[in-house]
Design brief:
Distance between the termini of chain B: 9 Å
Largest sheet of chain B: 5 strands, parallel
Structural class of chain B: alpha/beta
Number of strands of chain B: 5
Shape of chain B: globular
Structural class of chain A: mainly alpha
Strand content of chain A: under 5%
CATH superfamily of chain B: Response regulator
Number of domains of chain B: 1
Shape of chain A: rod-shaped
Order of helices and strands of chain B: EHEHEHEHEH
CATH class of chain B: Alpha Beta
Oligomer: heterodimer
Strand content of chain B: 15-25%
CATH class of one domain in chain A: Mainly Alpha
CATH architecture of one domain in chain A: Orthogonal Bundle
Number of helices of chain B: 5
Order of helices and strands of chain A: HHHHHHHHHE
Radius of gyration of chain B: 13 Å
Number of helices of chain A: 9
Helix content of chain B: 40-55%
CATH superfamily of one domain in chain A: Methyl-accepting chemotaxis protein
Chain lengths: 444, 125
């Protein structure tokens, strides 16, 4: 049977119970009472008259007991909890539908919690108060859920923060290891030394080449002087050849003048003349050769001095510049790397700081947990107090002793562990906050 | 110099993680306990614990009871023991002081403040 159907049946039962105990018993049993009275009177045969009123009361009580036992049976073993709930469902509409139902005579209270009190308004209050038990249970359950949820969230946040922090530390360790300042400085120094050595070698080479060029000029001059001297000697040879030719000519003339006696001499003079011509011709050839040689050497030296040296100088200058540029670029690269490392270090510290602060801020969960647990405890005390009030309403035969709410609230107050809790409590009670909480940190 | 070891005692996992995150990053070795009883057992068995940071309200054995018990142990007669709690009442502080606590910190404690206090009571760290 569904819960709703069960409740409807219960409502029907209670309606029957209410009707039987109010309207039915008030009318039907009144008539029946007079019959019973007559039977009893006749049966007893005594003069003791019970009277119609007393019999009516007896029957009413019987009907009430019957109805209650039926209801209790239907409610099962937990009749205490079911009955008031049904009463709530029945009494409220019944009061609206038929005001006369509330006018049934009240019974004396039975005293047991969970039985219908005689006063229906009290019953309503009891029912409502008992419903608070569910409410406070719900409050505690939800509070516990909040505590567990925030604890899980806080734990995962801290775990994530630790992972981020570890990753940053690892990255910084790697960067510092690979780009340690000492190591960078060592690389820079070594590179600078090598570059300087290269530049020095190049400069020495260029200087040597300049000296070689100068030497070449000197040598060219020496060669020119030597060839000039040779040319002079050749000229002198030609002069000797010319003089020899003149001598040969004179000898020829003198030989001709001498006649036959000078015929032999004429042959010699002719041979001398031919030799002088050959000498002159050889001297000419020699002069031409020297001039060609001089021109060739001059051209060669000119090429060496003015072209090759210039080209070499240009090339070496370019190489030197390239090396210098390389050095500069390397220094820039290392400087940039240093800047990057410094920047990363700075940013890592900037990230690490809030991570550390978050690690501390996460403590709010513990504080919230304790506050919620105090609320939970307070709700339990209120729950107990409501139950005690319920007993007061149900037990009309005596006034049970209860712990006043004021006392319970003082107990709640004494359980607080934070100045803010106590001040909030005071403010809720209309008092002013009075605690400053003392110093946050105190060394004894 | 080897890292100093601090024992953290709190029934809140969040607090333990928070303190662990702060102190481990500063280079301290850590041991953790979630109750006064567990902390006492750990203290009896541990070779070397240089300092204790404990909560006040925990299960059966509270922080003050723990401090009293620790002070009975030879290794903890002079070791710094800090109370870290949400409680701020003067009479509780006085009780903690009388039981041998070194200092009192109210939750939540800022990481920089915590480290400063720890360095103050654990010189050379």
């Amino acid at each position: 049977m569904s819960m709703i159907a069960s409740h409807r049946l219960q409502r029907l039962r209670y309606l029957w119970f209410a009707t039987a105990t109010t309207v039915g018993c008030g009318i039907t049993t009144a008539a029946l009472g007079s019959v019973v009275e007559r039977v009893l009177t006749g049966y007893a045969g005594t003069g003791v008259g019970l009277g119609p009123g007393l019999v009516t009361v007896i029957l009413l009580v019987s009907a009430f007991a019957l109805g209650r036992s039926w209801l209790m049976g239907a409610a099962g073993s937990d009749g205490k909890s079911v009955l008031p709930a049904i009463g709530l469902a029945v009494i409220a509409p019944a009061a609206g539908e038929d005001e006369s139902r509330n006018e049934r005579p009240c019974e004396e209270g039975t005293g047991a919690c969970g039985t219908p009190p005689c006063d229906q308004r009290a019953a309503l209050v009891v029912t409502e108060l008992q419903a608070y038990h569910f409410f406070t249970n719900l409050l505690r359950s939800q509070t516990q859920d909040i505590i567990e949820t925030t604890e899980a969230a806080a734990t995962s946040i801290v775990t994530a923060l630790q992972q981020v922090d570890r990753a940053i530390s690892d990255m910084m360790g790697f960067l510092e290891q690979s780009s340690a300042n000492d190591r960078v400085a060592e690389i820079v120094d070594r590179t600078e030394q090598e570059m300087h050595l290269n530049r020095k070698m190049l400069q020495e080479f260029m200087d040597q080449r300049a000296r070689d060029a100068t030497d070449a000029v000197v040598r060219q001059e020496e060669i020119r002087e030597a060839t000039d001297h040779l040319v002079g000697m050749v000229r002198h040879v030609r002069e000797i050849a010319s003089a020899t030719n003149m001598l040969a000519l004179n000898a020829t003339i003198e030989a001709a003048r001498a006649g036959d006696a000078g015929r032999g001499f004429l042959v010699v003079a002719s041979e001398v003349k031919a030799l002088s011509r050959q000498s002159d011709q050889t001297a000419r050839d020699l002069h031409s050769g020297i001039e060609r040689l001089q021109a060739t050497i001059a051209n060669s030296l000119e090429t060496i001095i003015h072209q090759h040296v210039d080209e070499e100088s240009k090339s070496l200058t370019l190489v030197t510049k390239t090396i210098t540029d390389l050095t500069d670029n390397l220094e820039k690269l290392i400087s940039h790397q240093r800047d990057v490392l410094t920047k990363v270090q700075h940013e890592s510290e900037a990230i690490a700081r809030p991570i550390m602060e978050l690690m501390g801020s996460i403590q709010f969960q513990d504080i919230t947990r304790q506050q919620l647990q105090h609320l939970s405890t307070a709700s339990m005390l209120v729950d107990d107090h409501v139950e005690a009030m319920c007993r007061v309403l149900e037990d009309t035969s005596s006034v049970p002793e209860i712990i006043p709410l004021q006392t319970l609230m003082e107990d709640v107050f004494n359980r607080y562990v934070m100045a803010s809790q106590r001040d909030s409590h005071r403010e809720a009670g209309g008092q002013t906050a009075m605690e400053d909480g003392g110093p946050k940190i105190e060394l004894f | 110099m080897s890292a100093k070891t601090i024992m953290l005692v709190d029934d809140s996992p969040t607090m333990l993680m928070s303190l662990e995150g702060i102190l481990s990053k500063a280079g301290y070795g850590l041991m953790k306990a979630t109750s006064g009883e567990a902390a006492l057992e750990t203290a009896k068995g541990a070779k070397k614990i240089d300092m204790v940071i404990t909560d006040l309200y925990m299960g059966k054995m509270n922080g003050i009871q723990l401090i009293k018990a620790l002070r009975q142990l030879q290794n903890f007669r002079f070791a710094p023991i800090l109370m870290l709690t949400t409680e701020s009442q003067q009479d509780k502080r006085a009780e903690a002081k009388a039981s041998g606590a070194t200092g009192w910190l109210v939750k939540p404690v800022q990481p920089t403040d915590l480290l400063q206090v720890v360095r103050q009571v654990l010189p050379g760290t």
